[in-house]
Design goal:
Layout (H helix, E strand, L loop, with lengths): L2 E9 L3 H9 L1 H10 L4 E9 L2 E11 L5 H7 L2 E10 L4 E7 L5 E12 L2 E12 L5 H27 L2
Antiparallel strand pairs: 1-7, 2-3, 3-4, 4-5, 5-6, 6-7
Helix pairs in contact: 2-4
Length: about 160
């Protein structure tokens, strides 16, 4: 069983500008900082027709319920891997190294005139008996908050 999450972000920019933003290490670093991460890095490389972007970040676990901090400790290392097979589509895989959970899904960009919509669809799964569902819902809530902050940074970035 898993928890499904769909989140949409809309930008007043053409797809090419949004795609370039997602490839820009400076933008990704701004997002890492804005989301309150204590450490993070971004790498991007292209092999053949696939561009792989990896965001590796460390977030404080402060404010999480006690059942969650017992699982992750005082910090959470999150590794997000995007495999872009076109400017419009990426397979998405997010893991917490050494922990029994993951997010798998996709990231899609759709242009409509001068507006681009980014849609993230993921299945969140945590394989821990009894509390796995609670942890999945907690991760979904954390992800929604992080994506709202990412969208705020993106709007500022695209307006420059």
């Amino acid at each position: 069983m898993s928890t499904q999450l769909t989140h949409t972000m809309t930008y007043d920019a053409p797809l090419a500008a949004v795609s370039a933003m997602l490839d820009d290490p400076a933008y990704r670093h701004e997002v890492i900082v804005a989301q309150g991460c204590t450490d993070g890095s971004f790498t991007i490389e292209t092999a053949g027709d696939v561009t792989t972007a990896v965001v590796d970040q460390v977030r404080p676990a402060a404010g999480l319920p006690s059942y969650a901090t017992r699982l992750v400790g005082s910090e959470i290392n999150i590794v997000q891997r995007e495999e872009w097979t076109s400017a419009e589509y990426a397979d998405l895989h997010v893991s917490i190294p050494g922990k029994p959970g993951q997010m798998v899904g996709s990231n899609t960009l759709v242009e409509d005139g001068t507006t681009t919509t980014e849609t993230l669809e993921v299945a969140i799964s945590v394989s821990i008996p009894l509390v796995g569902g609670k942890v999945e819902k907690l991760i979904a809530d954390m992800l929604r908050k992080a994506l709202r902050e990412e969208e705020r940074v993106a709007h500022a970035y695209l307006s420059r």
